[in-house]
Design goal:
272 residues; alpha/beta; Rossmann fold; 6-stranded mixed sheet; globular; binds adenosine-5'-triphosphate
Length: 272
Amino acid sequence: MPDAVPKAAVVVDAVTKRFTLRHARSIKNMTVRAVRREKLRERFVALEGVSAVIGVGESVALLGVNGSGKSTLLKIISGVMPPDGGSVRVRGRVAGLIEVGAGLHPDLTGRENVFLNGAILGMDREETLRKFDAIVEFADIGRFLDQPVRFYSSGMFMRLAFSIAVHTDPDVFLIDEVLAVGDPLFRDKCIQRLRAYRDSGRTMVIVAHDAKLLRQICTRGIFLENGRVVWDGDIDTAADLLIRKRQERRRAVQGGPGPVPAPPPRSAGAQS
Ligand SMILES: Nc1ncnc2c1ncn2[C@@H]1O[C@H](COP(=O)(O)OP(=O)(O)OP(=O)(O)O)[C@@H](O)[C@H]1O
């Protein structure tokens, strides 16, 4: 009998991450703080007991206001940052566009970076050669192909990084805020590509601040607040929550009226 339960592509189990915040960097500053009996450093919890199972073929958005822990969680899923507690398992080839330009070497040309970054993302030379023209065409970097990428505009940089990553045909594609960079035409091209990628049954986890964009691409939203999951369910509720939390913040900054209505009831998958 076929298995009705979809396979997990990503399993995040009780992940915790703490950072150390240093309040004094110079000896003078340290002395002043010590005399005043102020802390020199403190531990800061960026993620607290985060769990989620992402099935093969799901397109999931990580949402939350600034500093809620989205990028940290994506970095831990990608493996570039270890968790302090808990574990993460990912099935298959992973490609991550985690930071703008990540994986591209500024002193190498676009052409050289296609091979270097392709290799980092798991393509051998033969596969890169086969996909080279498609990568360059999608990136639309034209005559800049043989220029060092430090001369690229941020949009060109991003186009190349996105194009290489998407052409590795990853099983799990992790994307952080990259669609905020670049021109609207390329952004539309990326959205189309991501939709095609999603429709081909691959898995995607995306961080973005644009609620409209996330509604277009994702079906599920995991909403983080102060490093904890407060909503894990349909994307529309998650996107509405993002808009509401932003309004709440804005009002707090402007000294407007107090608390807004309580968050929606948590789905079965959410934790405190
Ligand atoms: N390397 C680090 N050292 C110390 N603190 C860090 C580090 N990386 C992240 N943080 C802190 O951890 C918290 C979560 O950061 P993170 O970048 O994951 O949030 P985010 O939700 O992605 O925010 P944004 O939407 O602004 O990108 C923030 O308060 C951030 O300042």
